[in-house]
Amino acid sequence: MAKTTKKFSLSPLGDRIVVKPASTAGEKMLASGIIIPETVDKEKPAQGTVVAVGPGKHEDGKRVPMQVSVGDTVLFSKYGYDTVKIEGQEYFILSESQVLGIAN
After folding, report:
1. In the chain, what is the greatest distance between 2 CA atoms, to the nearest angstrom?
2. Cα(104)–Cα(74) distance, integer angstroms
3. pLDDT digit string, tens, across residues 11-28
């Protein structure tokens, strides 16, 4: 039976990308019973997988190609992105300039 790949239903514009966030473990419990809430890790960059990429931005009349591509795992700041929910799944829309790096 052939496996069909479903096309993503959101196309970002300009230099924006759509990222599926990596799952977070949430609260952590230490052996002593102390519960560490998820908010303690807020200063760490977020991580996710790129699911859609815009065409790139225009600079001096020319289009600048994107440096990230679909399937890349990226690190980005936890601030400055927009959250959308598509078919029950949460995604982040952010500018390529907000990406801190690509995980290899």
Report:
1. 60
2. 9
3. 899 999 999 998 755 556
Tokens of 78: 């936890």
Over residues 50-81, the pLDDT tens digits come to 999 999 998 898 999 999 999 999 999 888 89
Using a 10 angstrom Cβ sphere, with 0-12 exposed, 13-18 middle and 19 or more buried, the burial of residue 79 is exposed
N-term to C-term CA, the chain: 32
Domain boundaries, the chain: 16-103
**Record: fold of 16-103:** 10 Kd Chaperonin, Protein Cpn10; Chain O (2.30.33)
List the one residue out of 97, 100, 93 whose CA is nearest residue 11.
93
